[in-house]
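2024-03-11 09:14:02 DEBUG pipeline.ingest accepted 1 chain
2024-03-11 09:14:02 DEBUG pipeline.ingest length=246
2024-03-11 09:14:03 DEBUG pipeline.predict start
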Amino acid sequence: MPNDGYLDESVHWKVRTGQLGFAEPTHSEVAQAILDVGLATAVGQRLGSGKEADVYLCRDGHRLIAVKVYRQYRTAHRGGPRAVKLEPMGQRALTELDLLTYAWQGGAHVPEPGRRVENMFSMQYLGDADSPAPMLQHAVLSDPRRFLDDLVAGIEGLAEAGVVHSDLSAFNILVHENSPWFIDLAAGVRVDRLGWPAWVRLQEALSALEHGVAALNRFFRRYDLQLDSKDVVSRSMRQIDRFRVV
């Protein structure tokens, strides 16, 4: 067994009882899991795949939805002395859905959140019956100047809702109905006054904003456009830091 000496006890137990396999689940197995927990009535193609989760096009009755499924475990696929450990993917799904809900309720341009069951949750599907909304990275903008203005307003809208996207890039923005929509809030920063000193969260938010705006500036060079980085970050931080901690 690969890495047998490096498995933690919880994984050993699941291997012994047959509750853990080392191959990634097949599409049909994931589809059956989504159907079994009642998140959808039909499961279609996989829309996207990331480091920790996959997103599937599904149907809930007559309505198209998206379902994000976090993988239950990580394995050292290339072998070598690296541990294989189960991870709390249910908690990760809960965290992302919470951030998505917080942003959506605040009026930000994010998919409408649905329900979570264990390591899976549903949300609004962005696209049409023929194809999903493209990532900004792969889209051709008909009016890039207007889109950039809308994008800046969207970043500030997230900030007004108290959320900062920690991986703001052209890969995590969809172009839907000619407008920017933010996805993948898995590691976003929720700026509130609970659990952490205010300045810690605000410094995390500032760092994420600066990094994200720099990434978007690199993308918009293809259109000979540029964000005013300092102004965007400054205005967003004023939205977030209502008590002027920073």
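2024-03-11 09:14:41 DEBUG pipeline.report The chain has two domains: 4-124, 136-240.
2024-03-11 09:14:41 DEBUG pipeline.predict end
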